TrEMBL record:
Top-level division of the source organism's lineage: Bacteria
A single GO BP: polysaccharide biosynthetic process
Keywords: Pyridoxal phosphate
Protein source organism: Nocardioides panaciterrulae
N6-(pyridoxal phosphate)lysine: residues bearing it: K204
Disordered: annotated span: 1-23
Catalytic machinery residues: K204
Entries under InterPro entries matching the protein: DegT/StrS_aminotransferase, PyrdxlP-dep_Trfase, PyrdxlP-dep_Trfase_major, PyrdxlP-dep_Trfase_small
Family: Belongs to the DegT/DnrJ/EryC1 family.
Protein's UniProt name: dTDP-4-amino-4,6-dideoxygalactose transaminase
Alphabetized Gene3D superfamilies for the sequence: Aspartate Aminotransferase, domain 1, Type I PLP-dependent aspartate aminotransferase-like (Major domain)
Amino acid sequence: MTARPIAEHSAAPPALGIDLSTPDPIPEEGIDRAVALMRTGKLFRYAEEGAEPSEAARWEEEVADYLGRRYVIAVNSCGAALYLALHSLGLQPGDPVLLNAWTLAPVPGAVEHAGGRAVLVETTRDLTIDLEDLERQARAHRGGILLLSHMRGHISDLAAVQALCAEHDLRLVEDCAHSIGGSWDGQLTGTFGDVGCFSTQTYKHLNSGEGGLLATDDDEIAARAILASGSYMLYGQHTRRPDLARFEDLRGLEPNHSMRLTSTAAAVLRPQLRSLPARVAQWNERYDRIAGGLAGVPGIRLPERPPAEQFVGSSLQFFLDDLTGAQITTFCRVADGLGVHVKWFGAERPEAFTSAYTSWAYAERRALPGTDAVLSTLCDIRIPLALPPERCEDVVAILAHALDHARAATTHSPNQPGR
Ligand SMILES: *Cc1c(COP(=O)(O)O)cnc(C)c1O
């Protein structure tokens, strides 16, 4: 008997035929609302003369009720919300801001924008912030601000984080760009710290193209953020805001940074919050199906997620721990060819959305061996609702085939560079 040629190692499954980057469409109710608003021309959230609360003000009320927070300020991106959070907490030039080394570029970008010094904190093998390293950095920098990302929806132990912040005098800002709808031990993310920030950019859980939210219970932070976001002297039109008296001392002091959300964006968002719980259940059904399938594929490791972490499975991360970089490149190429776009965080040159700290030349460098090890084999796929649940096993089959192929290709070609 002769050995089978590599090409036949495993028959390729059919291509998926569904674009995994498909965003959620805007609900018809949101479209109708936005069109009606366009007919009036009143797209700016503030009116010079007495008016009904704008769509933006209504949107803020609805999010505040959903989160159970006193104040919510809608702005034009999560990056802007993060900036405003740091600014309103009184960050001074050169002050340290501790943040996850594994996060998205707008996070260190917001620190830079606010004049802070980004101090990157190590990542665990289950993709949360490394609490031991966090404690070391908090000690070394004596307090400051922790800007904690629930990156790709991975929620750190928030009870432990809160205790650590209290012990080390750290103010906590949660970056919930990927975690609205998620909770820790029954409490929604974005409600654990001084400020919670959210994104309504197309690829997150609420879609207005661009948009962000800042949520807080603190009067001073809210008043400063409303003024600094660009409310002019029309801040009285925010219906969830501190007493007008709180603004008196701050009026002339806060610069206007023009980070407002349009009423059109708010109009398309409002019905999406109502459907969020149902959509979270749909994401999680798909996540569970794919994760369940991948758990049976030797060579693919899924991060462990504790029961207290009630996450939103809008994307899925996995590790190819025993593959070389060259093999992972092959894996991604084969999966991509079959319609499953995989992002590999260990690629030398970051592509698309950058999330490798090594590409942020403006942030202070420190040795992060734990994060390096994590990123070197970390892969990620999007889980759009456009993927029907019954097609999830096709995604698993494609990834399993790509893994088979990547292993076989390298085993059989001696010219391939090694580990
Ligand atoms: C997308 C994202 C942001 C930034 O959100 P924008 O609204 O695009 O500014 C911040 N943090 C994380 C973890 C993100 O995924």
